[in-house]
Amino acid sequence: MSTTAPNARLILKTLLPHLVVAAAYARSLQTKIAILPAKGQGENFFATALTDADLAIQNLVEVVLLANFPEIPFYGEEYESSRNTKYFHTTQLSTEHDYLITLDPIDGTRFYMDGHSNYQIILSILNQDDYEAVLAISPAQNIYYYALRGEGAFQGTLEMSLEACTSLRVISSAPHVLLGWGMSSLATALKEQYQVIDIANDYSNDIQIPNLNGILSGELSGAVISSGKFIDGAALAFIAREAGCIVTTLDGSSLPPLHTCLDYSLPGLIVAASSSIYQNLLAATQSLLV
Q: Which residues of this UniProt protein bind Mg(2+) (predicted)?
């Protein structure tokens, strides 16, 4: 990393006030936001959901980044639709640059469209091997979480500065386990010990179920996801790891360096609030990998 690169805390501190404005925008317009045509033929209806809020928030963040940190590459989920993409050096994690900043402007767009409160704005700062920082804002719940590499995880309300936030240690007594898209086959092996929330089969337009961010709030004690996208799943797993959770790949291996990953994604992940929960989730996944 070059000596002139801004540190991750400075980047978060600069962006936070603008992300709070984005959060207020998302919250105030949720009930009347325009739904846009689905993004292609994604693997599920979560991946293809799109609204005006996704595009507007990404544009706001792009403007702030280009004004303050124009030298840092940026990859936003809606980069193909953005008029600003061409002004960044690259959208890739590159050895020529110190960081890649990523953004999921509305993580849980389907939740957002259906009026649920657990959608998020997730901004991440990636290095070649790992995350440097992640900031996850829950506008409708007036809270945010952030983590800095090696410094732990923190939580606070949207009125609080980074420094005013309190330390976050994940402790969950709720025996709830989330299975991400494509993980439904694990349900049978886990149902005797846990209340299993299978996102593919249990999602409801009317009744809110936990998203992966439930691991941070204590609604979930564990989760298994088929891939950890840099912009969302892997970012939340980083906060969970800094908050004391166990995070590995589906076969129990350590996470690979980010620069070795393809398509802005880590492989499938296990996230667990304790070693006993982790062992149960690992055993279930290994039974399928054999």
A: 77, 104, 106-107, 232
